[in-house]
Write a structure and sequence with these properties.
Rossmann fold, three-stranded antiparallel beta sheet, 25% strand, 33% helix, seven-stranded mixed beta sheet, 10 strands
Length: 200
C-alpha cells in the first residue's frame, strides 16, 4: 500500500520519542528497520524525530527502509528524497524549514542531506520470512500487516522478533493488535499505542 505522508500517526511517533529513544541512545550503533516504507515519508519522518531528540547520538543511526515494490520506483524516490508540495504540506513549519529546501523543480522539495545519509532503501518481501539483518534496535511495520492473513502476520512477527536485538522495540499500526500466538515474545510498552519491547 503506497498511501502515506509525513508525520502520519503522530501519537505513535511521540511514543517512539518518549520510550524508544532513551533506551537506544546508549547503543554504539543504532540500526532501525522500517518495513513497508512505500515512497519514504515514514522513514524520513522517523529520522527527523530521532535527530530532533537524540543530539550527537544521531550520527550512530541507520534506517533501513524496505518495500516489496520491484519497479525501482520507490527506491529512486526514497534515495533521492524529493517530494511534491502536497506530500510535505502537513510538516510543521519549523521542521519543514529546517530539513527541506526547493530542489529546482517547481513545487518539489528535497530532504536535507543529513537525513538522506541515514536512510537506505532496499527491496524486500516480508513473506520471504528472511530479515534484512539481525541486532536491530527498532522495527517499524505499519500499514502492511493488515494486508496479510493471520498465519502470515504471526510468521512475520516471529521473524521480526528474531531480528531484534535484546530489548529491541517493535511498532505496528494502531489497528493491528498483537496476535495471541506471539504475544509472549513481547511486552507492551504503553497501553495506548502498538509499541512493544522484545522479552529477554
Amino acid at each position: 500500500m503506497a498511501f502515506t505522508y509525513f508525520f502520519r500517526d503522530l501519537q505513535t511517533l511521540e511514543m517512539v520519542r518518549d520510550h524508544v529513544i532513551p533506551a537506544l541512545r546508549s547503543r554504539r550503533f543504532i540500526k532501525i528497520w522500517d518495513a513497508g516504507c512505500a515512497m519514504g515519508p515514514e522513514p524520513y519522518t522517523l529520522a527527523i524525530i530521532l535527530r530532533e531528540n537524540m543530539g550527537p547520538t544521531f550520527r550512530n543511526v541507520k534506517i533501513y527502509a524496505t518495500d516489496i515494490d520491484e519497479s525501482g520506483h520507490f527506491g529512486e524516490i526514497v534515495n533521492n528524497g524529493i517530494y511534491p508540495k502536497d506530500q510535505v504540506k502537513r510538516i510543521p513549519k519549523r521542521i519543514f524549514e529546517k530539513y527541506f529546501k526547493e530542489n529546482g523543480n517547481p513545487g518539489h522539495f528535497i530532504v536535507a542531506e543529513k537525513l538522506r545519509r541515514c536512510v537506505e532503501y532496499q527491496h524486500h518481501d516480508l513473506l520471504s520470512l528472511v530479515p534484512i539483518m539481525k541486532d536491530l534496535g527498532l522495527i517499524m511495520c505499519k500499514n502492511v500487516l493488515l494486508h496479510f492473513n493471520e498465519k502470515e502476520r504471526v510468521e512475520v512477527i516471529k521473524m521480526f522478533h528474531d531480528a531484534l536485538a535484546k530489548g529491541g522495540f517493535f511498532v505496528t499500526e494502531q489497528t493491528q493488535k498483537m496476535p495471541s500466538q506471539v504475544s509472549r515474545l513481547f511486552e507492551p510498552v504503553v497501553s495506548h499505542a502498538q509499541l512493544f519491547r522484545k522479552r529477554s
